[in-house]
């Protein structure tokens, strides 16, 4: 094989836009194989995925992927720079990936590369000034540049920075997005946001039009009822915040600027996680950042875990196509990360424990028994 294209994804759920990206990524790179590094039970926006990771992996295979790996939870629910680095490091560790493709509203690689350049002293000073003015870091960077970047452009920039940090030779290949990430209309190329909204409202017929036909029935049949949401864990989160001293919370999760006090104080009055978010969020602490923090607290993804596991330590296989067996053999020979097809064979330690716990917590909301990582089979598609 000569070309292998990597994709960092969530597929929450997999829709026609994702299938289009997989098709274009293969065509633009001339890839022999497409490998997906996919978030597991929790996603980067700070929420549980609406479908389990095995169903989403099978949907990706049906839509054109050849191999789907799980991005460890420690990276999947972090801010954009850490999410991007975790995904890029996982793909780089396979030793065979030649290209990295991603969707972006701005697919001009020269412009993205310019945005990914190290900050100048002047830009850093402007960012610090906006931070001191009460803005979040993403807002401060956007204001310093003079414009807000769409989330997928921000991620694209972070992918380029991650490749530079890794010293990776993977060639970045952006693909233009057909619709905006926050487009809430239902149509053939609806955003994942619109599809999730329809599914939460019980509008499966509306959601179906945005799902690729080959993966629609699979995903709709597997939907838990009700859909998992951050509010599904309200009692657990409020218990943790009401019984953990603010100083312990600050130390464990590297929370600064008094946010720990606000969280603990508001948790005493809030009836659920949604009310807590509404009470705490502000310009400095936007909802997405707070949701990620709550998920990190829920899953025990604390600062000690971040320090102990700076990069993925294994490549966990969720599914593959039979035609990709030569790819698996090449990864086993050339990769710096062990390729794991059975959880029992994964390197023992904290990172695996965190992933197993994340799945067990997701299954609480979905009404499934625990330890499914030991009982679910790989999704293998015959060609």
Layout of helices and strands, plus pairs?
Elements: E1 4-9, H1 16-29, E2 33-39, E3 42-43, E4 47-48, H2 53-62, E5 67-71, H3 73-76, H4 80-92, E6 99-104, H5 109-115, H6 121-132, H7 137-145, H8 151-166, E7 171-176, H9 192-200, H10 204-208, H11 213-222, H12 234-243, H13 246-253, H14 259-267, H15 273-280, H16 287-299, H17 303-308, E8 315-321, H18 325-334, E9 339-340, H19 350-366, E10 379-381
Parallel strand pairs: 1-2, 1-6, 2-5, 6-7, 8-9, 8-10
Antiparallel strand pairs: 3-4, 5-8
Helix pairs in contact: 2-11, 4-8, 6-7, 12-14, 13-14, 14-15
Description:
This protein has 19 helices and ten strands. The strands form two sheets. Strands 1, 2, 5, 6, 7, 8, 9 and 10 form an eight-stranded mixed β-sheet that branches. The protein has a two-stranded antiparallel ribbon with strand order 3-4. β8 (315-321), α18 (325-334) and β9 form a beta-alpha-beta unit. The protein has helices at residues 16-29, 53-62, 73-76, 80-92, 109-115, 121-132, 137-145, 151-166, 192-200, 204-208, 213-222, 234-243, 246-253, 259-267, 273-280, 287-299, 303-308, 325-334, 350-366, and strands at 4-9, 33-39, 42-43, 47-48, 67-71, 99-104, 171-176, 315-321, 339-340, 379-381. It is an alpha/beta fold and 383 residues long. It is globular, with a radius of gyration of 20 Å. The longest helix has 17 residues, at 350-366. The mean pLDDT is 93. α2 packs antiparallel against α11, α13 crosses α14 and α14 (259-267) crosses α15 (273-280). It is 50% helix and 12% strand.
